[in-house]
Amino acid sequence: xxxxxxRPNIRHLxxxxxxxYVAGAAQPAYRARQLYGWLWQKHARSFEQMSDLPKTFRExxxxxxxxxxxxxxxxxxxxxxxxKCLFRLSDGKAVEGVLIPSGDRLTACxxxxxxxxxxxxxxxxxxxxxxxxxMFEEIFDQVAFLNEIAMQQAGRRLTNIVFMGMGEPLLNxxxxxxxxxxxTSPDGLAFSPRRITLSxxxxxxxxxRLADDQVKxxxxxxxxxxxxxxxxxxxxxxxxxxIPDLLEALEYFYKLTRNExxxxxxxxxxxxxxxxxxxxxxxxxxxLPFKVVNLIEYNPVxxxxxxxxxxxxxxxxxxxxxxxxxxxxxRRSRGADIDAACGQLANVVHTEAAQRxxxxxxx
Length: 363
Ligand code: SF4
Hints:
alpha/beta; DNA polymerase, domain 1; TIM Barrel; ten-stranded mixed sheet; two-stranded antiparallel sheet; 18% strand; elongated; binds iron/sulfur cluster; iron
């Protein structure tokens, strides 16, 4: 009987591992590259799909390796074109990815963890707690699936990838960087790292590590309040990673990499949307060569005490920033009709519909 649990995951083998395996299986050497291409370029879901490999070899592969792939369990399309996917992992946990069309851009927003340990007070994922880190192939699969949806719906590839879904990417450092390697590699999806932005709630020591590792992608700081006093109220991580320390880490990152750094700032009604808040934000913005401040309209989530800033207040906030020559953009709330706030869909599935949705394993 097949021992499925002990078979190694085929996607944990490097190209040289595959070359060794192919030689041991008495197959021609070029099979290793064919196989690697199916895994990382063509995004095959099963060995059976690898149509240019001999049937006997595919059977041997299926016998020797496991090949778990994310399952797309739920797709929701908003009236504004936003597509939200609920992905089921092979152990039954769920994560979300979103495809956001906007102007010329087709952006994939992906998750790095199932749940999140950081407990930000405005975030649905924060209320889930951390379930586990994702493996690199699980992050890769989200991008590959969203890219396929982009091709089906818009006839073209993704233009941008943001790590702004569930989880704190810097707390799953190794797997996130391995995933980005496959996403950007010419042997993989061949995306430009300049089109990738990793968003962090701010873990100083890991920002130093990104700089030392000379990464090529951009960074976004999820700031959401420009003083330590306010930020600590909504983001517990701020108690151990204060704003001045984060700014020092970001300065180091910028000096070493020259990659873009932006600020994300969700406008929360009567909490961080006053003129004083705008002034504090401008002061902080001037400390580093931030590329842009992305103001984000809040998508209220049921467990959070916050609500969306009224549009005339948001307009005043933006106008002040613009008068101060801040490069500012307002990101309109997308997909409000489809639970598109970070963690919202998974929360619905976990808390309300978990009994109704079948858990489908990846294989
Ligand atoms: S905002 Fe990001 S870091 Fe904060 S709880 Fe949500 S997923 Fe985690």
